[in-house]
Amino acid sequence: MSSAETELEVLEYYLSEVDNGNYRNIKEEEFENSIEDEDAVEAAEERYENRRDEAQHKKKVRTTLMAAFLRNGLIERVTNWEFKKLFPLRTLDIDSADVLIGNQTDGSIILIIILPLRQRPSTGIEDAVEMLEGVRDNNSTLSDDIGLDFRNDRIQTAIAIEPARANDTATAIEQYEQSNTNPEEFYVWRIAGTQGEKIDVFTDFPRNSGSDRRHDGDLGQELVEGREVMDSPHVLPDFFYDTHHSLLLEHTVTKMASNRNESEIPNTHFSRQELQDYFRDTLHGSDSNHKATQLADRVLRLWEHIELVTEVKSSNDQIGDGSTSYRFKSRKQNPKSIYDDIAEDYDQRSVEFLLEVEAMEKAIDQFKEDKGIQADLAAFST
Prior knowledge:
The protein is α+β, with helices and mostly antiparallel strands. It is 49% helix and 13% strand. The protein has 2 domains: 3-53 and 237-369, no CATH class; 71-228, no CATH class. It has 12 helices and 10 strands. It has a 7-stranded mixed beta sheet with strand order 1-2-3-4-5-6-7, sandwiched between helices. Strands 8-10-9 form a 3-stranded antiparallel beta sheet.
């Protein structure tokens, strides 16, 4: 579950169970104290920026991998390795790799894990080892899902990183290998450039470098030399299901506002169905319709709460597609101007929401203590 989803669960629990009388006062007092506390505000700002940076990083790496390995991609067309699935293990209730590529010829797969910007490589390796156990236990299901009958002894794992983290990641892999008698195969892929324009495999490990650190065959040759991935024969996603809401904003607002160009309906108006359709058409994968519905629910709950959008009364609904209509709270009419107007204080509103969620948690704690309810806020931890 993403941090944003967790925070929205806190919001929903607070509003449905706690938001009254004394507990509202507790929340409001805690919130006001946080707003005036420079350290609390700075911590929330850092958390917000870190999440956004992480989302930008993952988007860059995922789209680079898709451009390289989707059918007729730069690397796919000169090797037997093809992009098979994004988030391949999500339906198996296993912590998922970001991308799975497969070799139909010899029944091999590579699970590609994007190392989070602020996660230690050793933690990423530990998570990957646990993930691989789940992959082998679910071989048949995953094989059917990706359309490739892979062998359990031909599973490799690539950790995708920024170039500056290559040495630390290589060291962590060697430490893992030294402490295990039958270690998994790990490779280090560097994704370089502001937009992820180049992929290569890092082989200069401190203790054991060279050919052992590269893949066999054409893929190894391609990645040792490094390949620039500037263009793709495919339209790549502008965002993913777990993209940070601040990064969704520009795409979503301008797209929704542009729907009204040849209509008398105000450009600020849009419907839930239009939003879901846009997300469905943008998200990649077989479950995009379901994920689009979830994503629309998530952003609408957040944007309503921080007063970015408001629901249009049914009597004023001119869209009439059977779903709820909303309007962006802006007096502008040009799509770009609407976005600029809304985005002006979006970061501030979002940071204040993080502080408000912390205040809600304090009120929930007190509510559960007073009511004798066993506290179980682990589900709400951020």
